[in-house]
Design a protein that fits this description.
With 172 residues, this protein is mainly α. It is built from 6 helices and no strands. The protein has one domain.
């Protein structure tokens, strides 16, 4: 059986109950958020200070490689977050049926996704272009912009995590 046939068979023959589906979606959603927010926390609060001792000619290419790997995971996380989030909302009866903390989480999540898109397509692109041209000062300015935007996104991400953890218990 080839891969596409196996997928068709699985979709046609494996029935997952709605509570199981919700549990799977919650797990995927939490894992995707953990990868993204935890990755920003690690980069900003552990890697950045530790790499500060490196010469700029070593530090900037290192961050370019680290961010390249991390951004792949962020893109995957964004896809999983959007799909799982809206699937859960649909299972709960739509936007009108979900509590207000879900609306806040969704809004902050979209702001974070837009910020990430900007980081990816603007300062990170400028950073890579500057590194390829040997313009370390320009690459450093672009990395600093990434740091500032990622710091804001990290705070938003931590707020979203707090909303997710406490919202259903009446915290918000």
């Amino acid at each position: 059986m080839d891969g596409s046939s196996a997928l068709v068979y699985a979709v046609q023959h494996i029935v997952v109950s709605e509570p199981d589906s919700m549990n799977i979606l919650i797990a995927l959603h939490v894992l995707a958020a953990l990868i993204w927010v935890g990755g920003m926390f690690f980069l900003l609060l552990m890697v950045r200070p530790a790499a500060g001792a490196l010469p700029v000619g070593d530090r900037l290419p290192l961050f370019s490689k680290i961010l390249g790997r991390f951004f792949l995971w962020v893109w995957l996380s964004v896809i999983v977050l959007v799909i799982s989030g809206y699937a859960m909302i649909a299972m709960l009866g739509g936007m009108a049926a979900v509590p207000v903390y879900v609306d806040i989480m969704q809004g902050l999540g979209w702001i974070m996704m837009l910020m990430f898109g900007h980081i990816f397509f603007s300062p990170w692109r400028r950073m890579r272009t500057a590194l390829n041209a040997g313009a370390l000062a320009d690459a450093g300015r672009a990395l600093n912009q990434i740091r500032m935007l990622a710091s804001v996104a990290l705070v938003l991400g931590l707020i979203v995590v707090a909303l997710a953890a406490g919202g259903r218990y009446g915290w918000f």
